[in-house]
Amino acid sequence: MGPTFYFIKSIGTHSISFSSKLYKQVRFGRSNNREQRKEKMQAKKTREEVEKINMIDTWLKKHSLIYVGATRHPFILSIRDGTVNLTSFKTWLGQDYIFVRAFVSFVASVLIKAWKESDDSGGDMEVLLGGMAALNDEIQWFKNEASKWGVQLSDIVPQKANKDYCRFLESLMSSEVKYTVAITAFWAIEAVYQQSFAHCLEDGTNTPSDLQVTCQRWGNDGFGQYCHSLKQIVNRRLAKALDDEIKKAEVALLDVLEHEVEFWNMSDGGA
Ligand SMILES: Cc1ncc(CN)c(N)n1
């Protein structure tokens, strides 16, 4: 569309018309126009800065479909409404035990990256060490639950989705992968479980009583606080990161969400 022309004045038989741009310049003055542009640019910059301060929430809004897919999966919803198939639950339990063992090595690699790359102004090492300690308990918890449910852990063969996920973790352990990217993935992995299982503990849910302990494991307030601390570390790192690193971190987040969906799918006989 061409510029809008404003009729301004008739002088004798001559009429003078201006383009809208010129009109604004005449009407409000040149400097005013520049002021407006400056204000607009400042507003855009502020918006970008705010987004960068809380990059995670910006991404979760942008990728809400896959995020909801990972945190409100039919397996989780079946626990929440009490219709869960116990064979599915036992499949998940056995597969997750294998995953968590690989996950420990991944977290150790994140700890090494933190030591090498972080200024540790946010106490990253303490948060990560707390996470390692929680994983130690988690492994013991899986052993206890497996014996309670009659799942023989030594017989479990990792399924394709589990192997793919563990391979992905291994790729993140490479020294080529930056701390910011690895900790983004780490936060996302923990956050999906926290959000999923906390959903099963909300008021009015029908979660079976013998599955409450499982939901409490990741849905409790302490685990929620730990995920919040991880999120703050990630947001602080992303606010200072270069564009290339930010892009890689966003891709890592999406990869985690896809792997989590595939992981839940396994419980229902998926690959
Ligand atoms: C697949 C998966 N994702 C996350 C978590 C939580 N540590 C877990 N145990 N398993």
From TrEMBL:
<dbReference type="GO" id="GO:0050334">
    <property type="term" value="F:thiaminase activity"/>
</dbReference>
<comment type="pathway">
    <text>Cofactor biosynthesis; thiamine diphosphate biosynthesis.</text>
</comment>
<protein>
    <recommendedName>
        <fullName>aminopyrimidine aminohydrolase</fullName>
        <ecNumber>3.5.99.2</ecNumber>
    </recommendedName>
</protein>
<dbReference type="Pfam" id="PF03070">
    <property type="entry name" value="TENA_THI-4"/>
</dbReference>
<comment type="similarity">
    <text>Belongs to the thiaminase-2 family.</text>
</comment>
<keyword id="KW-0784">Thiamine biosynthesis</keyword>
<dbReference type="InterPro" id="IPR016084">
    <property type="entry name" value="Haem_Oase-like_multi-hlx"/>
</dbReference>
<dbReference type="InterPro" id="IPR050967">
    <property type="entry name" value="Thiamine_Salvage_TenA"/>
</dbReference>
<dbReference type="InterPro" id="IPR004305">
    <property type="entry name" value="Thiaminase-2/PQQC"/>
</dbReference>
<dbReference type="GO" id="GO:0005829">
    <property type="term" value="C:cytosol"/>
</dbReference>
<feature type="domain" description="Thiaminase-2/PQQC">
    <location>
        <begin position="61"/>
        <end position="267"/>
    </location>
</feature>
<keyword id="KW-0378">Hydrolase</keyword>
<keyword id="KW-1015">Disulfide bond</keyword>
<dbReference type="GO" id="GO:0009228">
    <property type="term" value="P:thiamine biosynthetic process"/>
</dbReference>
